[in-house]
Amino acid sequence: MVKNWQDIASYQPRIMKLLANSIQRQRLAHAYLFEGKKGTGKMDIGILLAKSFFCENLLEYEPCESCKNCKRIQSGNHPDVHIVEPDGLSIKKGQIQALQEEFSKSGVESSKKLYIIVHADKMTVNAANSLLKFLEEPNANTIAILMTEQYHKMLNTILSRCQLLSFQPLPPKIIQETLVESGISKHLAALVSQLTNDTEVAIEIAKDDWFAQARLKVIRLYEVLIDRKGQAPIYIHTEWMNHFNDKEKQESGLDLLLYIYKDILSVQIGNVEQVIYHDKIQQLTQHALQMTQRSVTEKITSILEAKRKLHANVNPQLLMEQLVLTLQEG
Q: DNA polymerase III delta subunit C-terminal domain location, by residue (predicted)?
């Protein structure tokens, strides 16, 4: 996903600016804590920072990507860049001690060293205390990058020794662009980008044939509701329940239906660029003229209420039959 620091400016601008300035001024911190949800680019940016730190032909703050250090970091075999991940469910004291032992030796390629601790919140108490000693006495040319999705679970003494960088969830536009680059169709990418902030999860969803079929079935239900109202309960019985056959899938179906009505509202208020079902824009525009904003808002509220009832363990078939009757009105 990340090619260079300029790429990061589109979705983590604050972090890009801070790190780029620090690289240019040669004032990188001894320890960083990258905090944020999965899929926000923490590891990509950690590797990019390592490249900038070790690059032999650095251009302001951008690594050259072609020197020996950049290539070895990219391939994951630079001797002075170490990545520590949980061994099983936790990061153990022995792993931190092995890291400290490695860092007590002089650098293989230079005097610089960098280490990344993934899921730093999963360190055992002994491992965390062992790392604390490491952070208290940093070497001049050593950088620590700790990464976590749950920084509130970490020791305050460790937090106080790190510069905290909070990663924002990726905006849907970035997810959508990444999906299209991965070969996903634009109309499918637009929809999937609304469902998750995690690029890897988004690609997984987009490549799942069930999801592509789900999108078609939701569009079909909407068309039945508009053009053949009396057929909607039959469609729920014969088509919908077979495909959306567990609670998680039923909730996904309601979400996909919700986005259709949100698209109609977007058309009505003039935000056509926000429409998710791009391939249905002509149909949606026509229907937007036939409905009042109040009617569309009420339909959106009905779907949200159905989602709430689904979590309250209401019978899903009865729930959907009741919902389509409500959506047919107005």
A: 246-328
Angle of helix 42-54 versus helix 68-75 axis, rounded to 10:
150
Q: What would the pLDDT profile of 165-199 be if each residue is shown by its tens digit? A: 999 988 888 899 889 988 999 989 999 999 988 88
If pLDDT is split at 50, 70 and 90, which confidence band does 2 have?
Answer: low
Tell which residue, 222, 251, 262, has the closest CA to residue 316: 251
**Angle at which helices 209-227 and 316-328 pack, to 10 degrees?**
40
223 dihedral zone (left: phi>0; alpha: psi -120 to 50; beta):
alpha
Give the C-alpha separation, 25 to 21, whole Å. Answer: 6
Residues 6+ apart with CB under 8 A from 69: 51, 54, 55, 56, 78, 109
Which helix (DSSP H) or strand (DSSP E) does residue 142 occupy?
Answer: strand 142-148
Could you give the domains of the chain? 5-169 (3.40.50.300), 208-328 (1.20.272.10)
Strand partners, 163: 32
As a whole number of angstroms, the distance between CA 91 and CA 83 comes to: 12
- Give the Cα separation of 6 and 292 in Å (integer): 44
Closest CA to 160 of 45, 23, 30: 30
CB atoms within 10 A of CB 261: 23
Backbone angles phi, psi at 271, to 5 degrees: -100, 60
- Helix 209-227 / helix 247-268 crossing angle, nearest 10 deg: 60
CA torsion, points 231, 235, 237, 242, in degrees to nearest 10? 180
Q: What is the pTM of this model?
A: 0.73
Sign of CA dihedral 18, 19, 25, 30: positive
Q: Which of 162, 157, 155, 87 is nearest to 118 (CA)?
A: 87
SS3 content of the chain, % helix, strand, coil (to 5): 60, 10, 30
